[in-house]
What we know:
By secondary structure, the chain is of the alpha+beta class. It is built from 1 helix and 5 strands.
Amino acid sequence: MERxxxxxxxxxxAGEKRGARVKITDIRNKKSVLLKKHYxxxxxxxxxxxFLENLGIKIKATSWNEINGNDYLLTDDFKTELxxx
Length: 85
């Protein structure tokens, strides 16, 4: 069975002081980045995929949790660090 690294994607709607945001959490390393939501993406997942691929992290699979509504992205890249420019 193949081992994969998982990223959880959460959407946070706009509040009084901040616009909408997308949080990407590296479940394995317990690190996260918070991005401004770009409305040219229909889904937060698509924005997260582009962000991760720009870091060099190739996504192999996606999943979705019906209970909490979060998306999950899976990769076999265990070396590239999750960081914001």
